[in-house]
Amino acid sequence: MTVAAALTKNQSLVLDTLAASQTPLSAYAILDALRPEGLRAPLQVYRALEKLQERGLVHRIESLNAFVACGHPHCQETEMIAFAICERCGTVDEFAEEKVVEGLSLWAERHAFTIQKAAIEIRGICSDCSRPAA
Amino acid sequence: MTVAAALTKNQSLVLDTLAASQTPLSAYAILDALRPEGLRAPLQVYRALEKLQERGLVHRIESLNAFVACGHPHCQETEMIAFAICERCGTVDEFAEEKVVEGLSLWAERHAFTIQKAAIEIRGICSDCSRPAA
DNA sequence: GATTGTAATGTAATACTATTACATATGATC
DNA sequence: GATCATATGTAATAGTATTACATTACAATC
Ligand SMILES: [Zn+2]
Ligand SMILES: [Zn+2]
Ligand SMILES: [Zn+2]
Ligand SMILES: [Zn+2]
To answer: What is the model's pTM?
Structure first.
C-alpha cells in the first residue's frame, strides 16, 4: 500500500491560493497572486494545476477557463461532478446528482459511447444573490 | 407575428462552414476557412458566432473552445442540451436526455438556484471508434 | 429623396489563456 | 557518486477572445 506523495512547494502554493479564494481563479490570476512567493512563469502554475487535478484536489471549470479547489466531500466516489456557477457573485457549488449521472450513463450505454470524463456546469443565480436585498 | 430576419453574409458564411464540418471548429479555424471569401479579422467570426448562438443555430463546446452547427432536431424544446465528444475522431453528438435535465433542475430547485444556461459535455470514445478495426 | 436611426462591417490593437522547448536542480536508489 | 525520475526555472511562442474606433448598408420617417 503506497502513501500519496506530499505536495511539492509549487503545488502547495497553488492549492492554498485556490482554497483561499471564494471564486474560481484563472491560471494567470493564480500566478499574479503568487509572484510575491517567487513564481514567475505561467508554466509553473499550469504544471502544479495539472498534478492537483490528477489527484482530484482541483477542478477545472471549462466554461470559465478557471480552476477551483475541490469542495466536495465525496468527490472520489463519482466521476461525474457538476458545478453550479453564480453569474452574479461568482461562487461555485460542486455537487453530485445521481439522476444526472444515470441519465448520461444511460445515453452512453444506448449509444455505445465510452465516457472518460464529463464537464457538467450550470450557470445562473445562486440563492444568496436572488434573495431580496436586506 | 414577426418573421426571423435573414442571416447576414458573414453569418451565412460562418454557419455554412460549421455545417460542412464533421467536427467542431475554433473561431480561428473558421476564419482561416473563410479568408478566401474575404474575411480578415477574428471579430468578424466572433460576431457572426454570437448571433448564430442567440438563434440556437450554433453551439459552443466549452471544453474545446470550439463551435458546432446545431445538429439536434428538437433543440428548441429544451434549454439543456448535452454533447458527447469523441476523443479519437472528434465528432460531436448533440442530445437531450430528460433524466439529466430533471436531475439538474431538481438540484437547482432544492438549492434555490436559478439556471440560466448549462454546459453538459461528456468526453470519451464513440461507438464507431471503439469497434474493432474491420 | 434627404434625414435619421439602427444593425452590420471593417480594421487595428491589445488582452487573456495555454503550450513547446530547453536548461537546471533535487532527491531517491543502487 | 552514478543513475534515474521528478520537479523547477526561463524564454519564446501559439492559440483564443475582446476593446476601441471608423465606416457602411439599409430601412423608416419626414
Ligand atoms: Zn471535487
Ligand atoms: Zn451568487
Ligand atoms: Zn442544437
Ligand atoms: Zn469516434
So the answer is: 0.94
